[in-house]
Design brief:
Blueprint: H1 13-33, H2 50-59, H3 62-68, H4 75-88, H5 105-119, H6 130-144, H7 154-166, H8 173-185, E1 187-189, E2 192-193, H9 204-220, H10 225-242, H11 267-274, H12 282-296, H13 346-349, E3 360-363, E4 368-373, E5 378-383, H14 394-398, E6 403-404, H15 418-421, E7 427-430, E8 436-437, E9 444-447, E10 452-456, E11 462-471, E12 474-483, E13 487-492, E14 496-497, E15 504-507, E16 511-516, E17 519-527, E18 531-535, E19 548-557, E20 560-574, E21 577-578
Antiparallel strand pairs: 1-2, 3-4, 4-5, 5-6, 7-8, 7-13, 9-10, 10-11, 11-12, 12-20, 13-19, 14-19, 15-16, 16-17, 17-20, 18-19, 20-21
Helix pairs in contact: 2-5, 3-5, 5-7, 6-7, 7-8, 7-9, 9-10, 9-11
Amino acid sequence: MVKKFIDNNFLSQNDYQVALETIVAPLREPLLTSDTPGLYLGSSGAVYDQQRANMEALVRPLWGIAPSWASRKDDVLKESYIKKLIRGTDPTDPQYWGIIEEYDQYIVETAALSLTLLLHKEYFWDDLSKRAQKNVIHWMEQALERKIPKNNWTFFKVLIRTALLHCGEALDRKALEEELKLIDSMYIGAGWYVDGKQTQRDYYIPFAFHYYGLIYATFMKEEDPEWSQRFIERATLFAHDFIYYFDDDGEALPYGRSLTYRFAQGAFFSALVFADVEAIPWGAMKSMLSTHLATWLNHDIFTFDGRLSIGYHYENLVMAEGYNAPGSPYWALKTFLLLAVKSDHPFWSAKPSPVKKESKKLMEKGNMLLLNECSGHHLLGYPAGMLVEGQAHAEAKYSKFVYSTKFGFSVPKTGVYYEAGAFDNTLAVSCDGQYFRTKKEVISYQLTETYVSYQWSPFEQVTIGTEIYPFGQWHLRVHEIDTKIPLYIREGGFSVPVSGNKPQAKSGENFGVVTAGDLTSQIVAVAGYEEVLIIRPEANTSLFFPRSSFPCLKSSLPPGKHRLLCLVGGIVKSEEGVK
């Protein structure tokens, strides 16, 4: 744990500045002493090459550094970035970043460069020679001609056009309008987008679509008032939903891909401050951001030498996506965008105030039923119909029965045996007792304020109808299974940490319970199960706990129709007692 953040309440502009400087401090020496236009932060690989990984590690910190220059100039660091940018974009330099290709990671990283140019034309851009400026323009313009996924990446082209216009280049209005219309085609109403696919609704909606839209609205409000206002209106609508994705301790619901970006989950609120959009009262927004950052920066998310690690609550490559290189976690610095606003902005003087939320919220556009329990300190999310094909651990990140801000969830390490699959909070099905499958895409689903249901098929000869009925920190699971083959069934509960050699667990004929501190995971068989197990998954499978355990129900089913019922609880003990 990094003790230095414990006393930071994230209430003043200086609090944010000090935190940013502390996070960036381990990068400062290599940034200042290296002549190469990149930053080497580790040997783990990504789907892109080492040069791109190093460029990403160099550029992503600018999400926080560039906004901070608005109030606290850093000429030495700025000059270092200028020198590296000049080398990286000069085709005659041996360290040239190279040609931007189709679907290139470079295109993603142009967004942080675009923000830097937008914020600092005089302080940054004007310090480049005319030749260097032309090189930067030509290098970034390559991205405008390349194929990209039809999703949030479309905004990268929009931001490049906006930045180059800001630096005096001509604007291709027709191309810009086409890109904005493509973004518009992903809008589904009530402030919500889909990230290219209907089944992808995750943190890319707030920290990509709305975040970039609010940057666009800030710099293009005179040039393009119609789209600017549209982005502001959509962000305002979304804010009233997004507040429900955080518990009162500031922990965001762990759900979906790119979770190694961590406190980028709060970047949307920072963008609202930057764009001067009081979608919720400034005091409530201050509470959201301060609790979120204070919580995150006191998790064990830093390496031994102080760098942001790949992982979630701790350093963990098991949960990562293929596009997570050592510098990728610095996407989190998007949350420091608010450092670009002036010291007299009303956000800074606002007093923190409670965020008003209902105890239950059906998020129709987000495909999620959300329950605030334990006096708001425990958030539970019950999703339906979401999945991103081709992503690492997609079933675990989108399609478990329930997600929790206190218990987290686990991802598989291998698919060979049950403990390596770490199948907490889901039904795992096997036809041989060794290789287990869980719910992936669904045939159909229904989402209401009282239950979630879906039809799914883990094997061609098997169909399962599952109904989930939440109540408090418990829920009832009902499975109607129709199988033409024998099945081996495992029903997993919530994971809790293991601190000693063994989990604190007990089990009976029809129940299993594991306890750790204020967390209790319990499962109770009602019908259809034969045995209770206490599972010790492979280490580093839980996103929250390096070592974990959960209770499990077991059954063997012959061909035919079967009905399984169980009660599952993830209980957080509060000061008032168990809720």
